What does this fold into?
Amino acid sequence: MTITEERLFDLSYLEQMDDKNFIIQIIEIFLLDTPADLLVLEDAFKAGDLDTVYKTAHKLKSSTGMLQANSLFGMLGNIEKLAKTGIAGNQLTELVQSSRVEFDQLKNGLELHLQEIKVAE
It folds into this structure.
């Protein structure tokens, strides 16, 4: 794992299970499902549906936490807290936008790591 990847995510929790196929499956599901969930979050935010923003951020935190993607996890936690207050201010706007950027960086790192895992099999 490169230094950049270490900052984006940490799979040590999953690696304790010593099951490469499981890790591959978790990463693939995350990469497949997360863009759609982020779209739901963004659309709900644009529509002013803060309850859906809250629920979607909470859902995304679970999978993000499993990968120990701490930066995105923190953003989602802040989105969740702010959406729960019912006030959609500038901070929430910035966090929603930044979460997409952070996911894109995370996605790139995870895709590279996924290739490395598959090659090592």
Remarks:
- The two ends are 16 Å apart (CA to CA).
- The chain has six helices and no strands.
- Helices lie at 3-8, 12-15, 20-47, 50-66, 70-85, 90-120.
